[in-house]
Write a structure and sequence with these properties.
The chain is mainly alpha-helical. It folds into two domains: 188 residues, no CATH class; 135 residues, no CATH class. It is 69% helix and 5% strand. It has 16 helices and five strands. It has a three-stranded antiparallel beta sheet with strand order 2-3-4, sandwiched between helices.
Length: 379
């Protein structure tokens, strides 16, 4: 007599994570409604609403259907597929503002570089769990041999992203994967070596890259809160967006100007829906509102991080930590750019900024975190 297969069903999951996700999505819809109401049409709001519903459905489906532990064997192939998509983008992708990052799928402009971050996190969690003893004991020299495949796959992926001129994704992905290595227990010498190589590579990309990157660094030097420029600041055309962002944030003061008096969304800030949506929040909702939004993202990160840290399954632990850091690094870069704490770079604020592919990928990551948090009953 054949033995019946063991089945399981979810009896509970971390509802606090789900509620926080829903709150951030609602805030995103309110902000998008506010911006769309004074611009050319309401289509941005309706598109965001549509993609938010689709993304939420993806998150719930992933929560209830995926078995991440069994799916891990496919992690190398998911990375290979992502690399293939990155190559297709370079060959047939749409070029927008000098960068080739998107594949037009008709109803959405999909950015494989955002998916690449998720694929690498999944692959890293698989390898770091499988070879954890080697990681903890590896010296600088033996690390190359023990994790050669991981290094090659990551290097090829990052090289393709550099060619697509999506530097913000490279930074966020690099910080996330580096954080996973720290959490998994890599030796200090290995971590220092990787950091030095990363800094040198970053300097080479900036020094030999497109002229607009050098212009952004020049703008950053003028307006950075940490640097005091010598002499009088000369405002140039390239400085416009950063200047308008800081002007809008400062005008928001403590409680904000209110939605009716917001200035940045009236085309004064070109990327108000995406890269600088946090500026609109800071101007209209003030320091208090901006702090609440940032606080919700911080709470989501720490809740997800400790949930992952408490897992008995080491693969799920590494995966959850990586997913949580990925979302939060994105938040830090977006808010840092809005306040001129970081050089200007194009990336969205998770669950709030306009953008179908970014919202979908972030929601998939959230669904995986909910899946990791789930308690199951086996029958």
């Amino acid at each position: 007599m054949k033995r019946s297969k063991i089945q399981s069903y979810i009896v509970s999951f971390d509802k606090v994570i789900l509620i926080t996700y829903c709150l951030l999505c609602v805030i995103g819809l309110v902000v998008m409604l506010d911006i769309s109401s004074v611009q050319s049409s309401m289509r941005y709001f309706y598109r965001q609403l549509f993609f938010m519903i689709i993304s939420a459905i993806f998150a719930i489906v992933i929560l209830y259907t995926l078995n991440l532990e069994k799916l891990r064997v496919l992690s190398p192939y998911i990375v290979y597929l992502t690399i293939l998509l990155l190559i297709i983008v370079l060959v047939k992708g749409n070029t927008v503002k000098g960068a080739t990052r998107q594949i037009n799928l008709g109803f959405i402009n999909f950015q494989p570089s955002v998916l690449a971050r998720l694929a690498l996190i999944f692959y890293f969690a698989h390898i770091l769990d499988k070879k954890n003893e080697e990681l903890v004991s590896s010296t600088t020299g033996s690390f190359l041999g023990n994790f050669f495949a991981l290094i090659v796959v990551t290097g090829v992926t990052f090289l393709l992203i550099i060619m697509e001129r999506h530097l913000s994704t490279l930074i966020i992905g690099g910080l996330t994967l580096y954080g996973m290595l720290i959490y998994a227990g890599a030796k200090k010498r290995v971590l220092i070596t990787i950091a030095i190589i990363g800094i040198i590579a970053g300097c080479l990309v900036l020094a030999n890259g497109a002229d607009y990157r050098k212009g952004r660094l020049t703008t950053y030097k003028k307006f950075c809160l940490f640097l005091k420029p010598a002499g009088e600041i000369k405002i140039e055309d390239n400085d416009y967006q950063v200047k308008e962002s800081l002007t809008a944030l400062s005008s928001g003061a403590i409680i904000g100007t209110g939605m009716a008096r917001g200035r940045a969304k009236h085309y004064y800030l070109p990327e108000a829906r995406t890269d600088y949506v946090y500026t609109v929040i800071g101007e209209e909702w003030g320091f208090v509102g901006a702090l609440i939004v940032f606080g919700l993202h911080c709470f989501l990160f720490f809740r997800c991080f400790w949930m992952a840290h408490s897992q008995e399954n080491r693969f799920l632990e590494f995966l959850g930590v990586g997913l949580a850091m990925n979302i939060f690094c994105n938040v830090l870069v977006n808010t840092g750019v809005a306040m001129s704490l970081l050089p200007p770079t194009g990336n969205t604020l998770p669950f709030i900024s306009y953008g179908g592919s970014a919202l979908l990928i972030d929601s998939i990551a959230l669904g995986m975190l909910l899946n990791i948090s789930a308690q199951r009953r086996y029958v």
